[in-house]
Design a protein that fits this description.
2 domains, 0% strand, mainly alpha, Growth Hormone, Chain: A, 20 helices
Length: 459
């Protein structure tokens, strides 16, 4: 099976003339989902003052969205494969939009947390289904370019979220970090109703036992990673969550080998290109979140930036990510996954190492922008590797797996950097923040060296 065969459009011999317009709308929708991971960061102090949130409550406002988003991703992807991705895209986007309105209207901490969880449910349905539409609509060189666009906006979403959060919080107030999704979501719903092709589902039944096990295990590991940043890697909170996750995944692995119609085909998870793609997206996301986490604290604590100025400072990082993703999408068909991933990781390592010299604000912004360029390329290589070994009828659940590892990477990046730079958060010093950047640079370098192993992509 070749990469082209694995991702060829299924609707007709001639490509869908609406495909690029559909890609634009789906990418904007994905951008909105990713923005909501970080958009609340700068608004948290105002939320705490208005709703009486304690420190633990603030942590959950930021993390419950990512937890539910990641925990339900495989379920959303499998549902897209069964009933068709168009229905799941529209349903997920509709729920996300309504939940955003509820979050803005929330008058208590409990209502806000419920609304954030519902946002996560909608995002978990829409994101893998949207990527499934792309994988089943484009092929060959066009697929690589489409993945470049998708990865560019998704990778830049975290930076844009920080900027948008600062602008809206400083302007009309924190509820607008959620209200802004309502008109955007409604407009996208109308656009996608007209542009997303009616791709058929494979039919069959949903393995609810496997879905429950995967959701429980994924939610548990993300909770454990979040708890590690708050309580420590060896805390009881973290250890119990990790043990529950391991038990859940063991039971999930046993279940998918026995079920007549498993949530995930075990053979798909054994394919080297699939494993490579999942590993790359995990590392790339962890590095990207590390850049924003460390940079945000360093600019505010060491250089005295306001939240709004901090958000504006991340614009070059977002542009670097977009450029890296677009360039990688263009060269991936010629260079291959191995070359693009190694080059991207080495560029990211160089940028992160340079960022350790954060005595200069200019050096910090320039270095992290270079790192963003490399990380953007790795996002594209990850998706390209995975979809080179996936059949059209597997696109939804494969997208769910890719998105799940994206959330794993985000939670791991925050937790790891929080642990490494914990001293800087208590008593801000240049050397303590530099340790976090050196750690991230070492991870990128080691991942780049590991990626030198030639991918065994058939075809």
């Amino acid at each position: 099976m070749t990469a082209h065969e694995a991702t060829a459009p299924e609707a007709s011999v001639s490509p869908d003339p609406r495909r690029w317009r559909t890609l634009a709308f789906l990418s904007i929708a994905q951008l909105m989902l990713i923005v909501d991971v970080t958009v609340v960061a700068i608004a948290l102090p105002d939320m705490a003052a208005d709703l009486g949130l304690e420190r633990t409550g603030l942590t959950w406002v930021a993390s419950i969205y990512a937890l539910v988003f990641g925990g339900l991703m495989l379920l959303g992807g499998k549902a897209a494969d069964i009933v068709g991705p168009r229905r799941i895209v529209l349903a997920g986007l509709g729920l996300f939009t309504i939940a955003s309105l509820l979050a803005g209207l929330a008058s208590s901490a409990e209502l806000l947390l419920i609304a954030r969880a519902l946002q996560g449910v909608g995002a978990a349905a829409m994101s893998p289904a949207a990527l499934s539409v792309i994988a089943r609509t484009f092929a060959g060189v066009e697929l690589a370019r489409a993945l470049g666009v998708w990865s560019a906006l998704g990778g830049a979403g975290a930076a844009i979220g920080v900027l948008v959060g600062g602008l809206l919080t400083a302007g009309p107030g924190w509820p607008w970090v959620f209200y802004i999704n309502v008109p955007v979501g409604a407009a996208l719903l109308l656009a996608l109703l007209r542009s997303v092709p009616p791709l058929r589902g494979a039919g069959g039944s949903l393995d609810t036992v496997s879905a429950a096990l995967a959701t429980m295990a994924t939610a548990s590991v993300i909770y454990g990673l979040v708890a590690a940043g708050d309580h420590g890697w060896l805390s009881l909170h973290t250890l119990i969550a990790v043990i529950v996750a391991l038990i859940g995944y063991a039971l999930f692995g046993l279940r998918i080998t026995k079920a007549a119609a498993p949530l995930v085909d075990p053979n798909m998870l054994r394919r080297p290109p699939v494993l490579r793609g999942l590993g790359l997206i995990f590392v790339a996301t962890a590095l990207m979140i590390s850049v924003f986490f460390l940079g945000s604290f360093a600019l505010q604590e060491l250089h005295g930036f306001t939240p709004l100025a901090t958000g504006l400072s991340f614009l070059p990082v977002a542009l670097g990510t977009i450029l890296g993703s677009n360039l990688a999408g263009r060269v991936l068909p010629r260079w291959g996954v191995r070359t693009v991933s190694v080059a991207g990781l080495l560029v990211a390592a160089a940028g992160l190492a340079a960022a350790a010299g954060i005595f200069s604000m200019t050096v910090l912004v320039a270095a992290t922008s270079i790192a963003g360029f490399g990380i953007g390329a790795v996002f594209v290589a990850a998706a390209g590797s995975l979809f080179s070994a996936v059949q059209p009828q597997e696109a939804g659940v494969a997208s769910g797996a890719l998105s799940t590892f994206h959330e794993f990477g985000a939670a791991t990046g925050v937790s790891a950097v929080f642990s490494i730079a914990a001293a800087a958060l208590l008593v801000p010093t240049f050397h303590a923040f530099a340790a976090g950047y050196w750690f991230a640079a070492a991870v990128a370098l080691l991942a780049g060296l590991a990626s030198l192993a030639r991918p065994r992509i058939v075809g």
